[in-house]
Each structure stands twice: as C-alpha cells, then as structure tokens.
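for ur thesis appendix - Leucyl aminopeptidase. copy paste whatever u need, i formatted it the way the template wanted (i think)
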Amino acid sequence: MTTVRLNSADPVSFDTDALIVGFRSGPEGPRPATGADPLEAAFGGKLAATLSSLGFAGKPGEIAKLPAFGSVAAPLLVAV
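the 3d part is after this line
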C-alpha cells in the first residue's frame, strides 16, 4: 500500500522511497516552491538546470522523475 505523508524535515536526509518536491515556474526555469535550498545544494546547485534540461518547467500538471544518485537519502526525486 502506498503511503503519502507531508513532512517538513530536511529533504536531504529524509529516508523514504521517493522524495516529492513542489516546484514553480520562474523566469530562469523551475524553482523549488519553498524551503528546498538544501536540496539544490545537495545536487551541487544543478537541480533546477537538470530539470530544465529534461523539459520540466515547473508548470501546473508537470511531473519529472530523476534518480538521486546518492545526493539525498531517497533514491528517487519526483518534481511536481
């Protein structure tokens, strides 16, 4: 059974199967909706650029999945 929980813990160290993070569209590409600066830092400052290169703009209804490659505790990042 799938369980979804809202959590305000540090997204970098949160141990889960998939980390789901909200993004919004900005003039320079997708931007985390709130409080994801540590997440961007965990990805070497390239998370937004990586999502942009995948065609993800942070617009309503968009979803992008990418492997975390050890940048965060969760193996998968889902941008919504």
